[in-house]
Description:
By secondary structure, the chain is an alpha/beta fold. It has 2 domains: 22-51 and 313-457, Aspartate Aminotransferase, domain 1; 59-310, Type I PLP-dependent aspartate aminotransferase-like (Major domain) (Aspartate Aminotransferase, domain 2, 3-Layer(aba) Sandwich). 40% of the residues lie in helices and 12% in strands. The chain has helices spanning 22-31, 59-65, 76-89, 100-111, 125-133, 161-170, 195-208, 219-229, 238-247, 273-286, 297-310, 313-333, 350-353, 363-375, 384-387, 415-430, and strands at 46-47, 93-97, 117-120, 137-140, 179-182, 212-215, 251-255, 266-270, 345-349, 377-378, 380-382, 403-407, 439-443, 454-457. The chain has a 5-stranded mixed sheet with strand order 2-8-7-6-5, sandwiched between helices. Strands 9-12-11 form a 3-stranded antiparallel sheet. A two-stranded parallel sheet has the order 1-10. Helix 2 packs antiparallel against helix 11 (297-310), helix 6 (161-170) packs parallel to helix 7 and helix 12 packs parallel to helix 16 (415-430). It is globular, with a radius of gyration of 21 Å. Residues 52, 99-101, 124, 126-127, 182, 186, 215, 217, 255, 257, 266 line the site of pyridoxal-5'-phosphate.
Amino acid sequence: MELPFAESYKMxxxxxxxxxxxxxxxxxxSIAKYNLFNLRSSQVFIDLLTxxxxxxxxxxxxxxxxxxxxxxxxxxxYYKLKDAxxxxxxxNYFLPxxxxxxxxxxxxxxxxxxxxxxxxxxHFDTTKGHIEFRKAHAVDCTIDEAFHIELNHPFKGNIDxxxxxxxxxxxxxxxxxxxxxxxxxNSSGGQPVSMDNMHAVKILADRYGIxxxxxxxxxxxxxxxxxxREEKYRDKSIREIVREMFSYSDGMTMSSKKDAIVNMGGFxxxxxxxHFEKSSTFNILFEGFITYGxxxxxxxxxxxxGLYEGTDFHYxxxxxxxxxxxxxxLRDYGIPVQFPFGGHAIFIDAKRFLPLVREEEYVAQTxxxxxxxxxxxxxxxxGTLLADRDPDTRKNRYPELELLRLAIPxxxxxxxxxxxxxxxxxxxxxxxxxxxxxxxxxxxxxILRHFTVELERV
Length: 458
Ligand SMILES: Cc1ncc(COP(=O)(O)O)c(C=O)c1O
């Protein structure tokens, strides 16, 4: 008999979570103005809002925290992290930051000015926010296949090289300070970018003399998909694949809260000293001295250890199989989910799930609210609210895909929890024809509105 799949870790500490009644959840979500970010975590039974900073650290990570060196300058924890980053990514220069968007803030302060054009695959919302905050423009060059939700393509995060080259031809070199490739591509469904594509983007970028940076929050999950789906990498280790991936970039921004399995932290990796030095000034200004940059010594220790654990094949196999376990249950029931399944989350096509709710009534947010009311499960909208308004016209941008994302925290939930989530969503699916009205906005912020938006039922 073939041995069944099982987790590559066991539990040493548990955290209690509490179920609630449907009538309580109806009241709580109304007080939260139908914004799932406004709920208290105690009002949520299974929290799939994000996989960011919500993972469970290992015994080794907790123990190395005790050895943290909290010196302001030159701490041994900084050097430990520097060594780990060099070992895993190959980058000789790095700056610690307190999280991923802080890395974006520092790097973009050094590289981007008003009117610039930043092409890439679908930029993540904070990345786009930091670009648009500087009055620059993010251009999405993702392959068209990414927007066909059930089309079976192994690398839906890939950049369309023709689209990219058109942008590089259209604008002068001095208006394109960098290209950003997000691995895996969160905004198009946690979909990976192939090694071939990374290589081709780098060759093209070099021809135009433009640096390439990877938004690398889920670089290890990307490497796992390369190993599984790109024939010539089948026999390579995850770490070999990771090193080759980063060799096709000039640097990286990292939200360590994902694939490095820490609760807080980030960094920027640089190939070139010049970018490192230019960014260092902004790091000191916004984050802290260059040898701690917004992180405590103990957190740098945990991050250094997490980089190794997050690039372990067996861990990645456990993780990605758990995400697929949820996806398969939903797909088998006929729920429209993105396929192939992404690395960190399952994305539900809200427009097909709730066909009676009008586009301007925030369909994916409506689905998220219904799922919360059904079972106390919290997901997140990746749709019109997140896409925000066009910075010039201030009109709603309607993205090609209106998705509800169920992101799975790393090493946190068991497959029983996953079964519960599937059952709750199936119940909503069974009553989908009774859901005909969505939500409208009462109040919103001028940028990154989805975090704080207030809504009411139509
Ligand atoms: C692809 C990507 N880039 C950047 C970020 C921002 O990272 P942070 O939340 O650590 O600021 C995220 C967060 O989810 C992300 O998914």
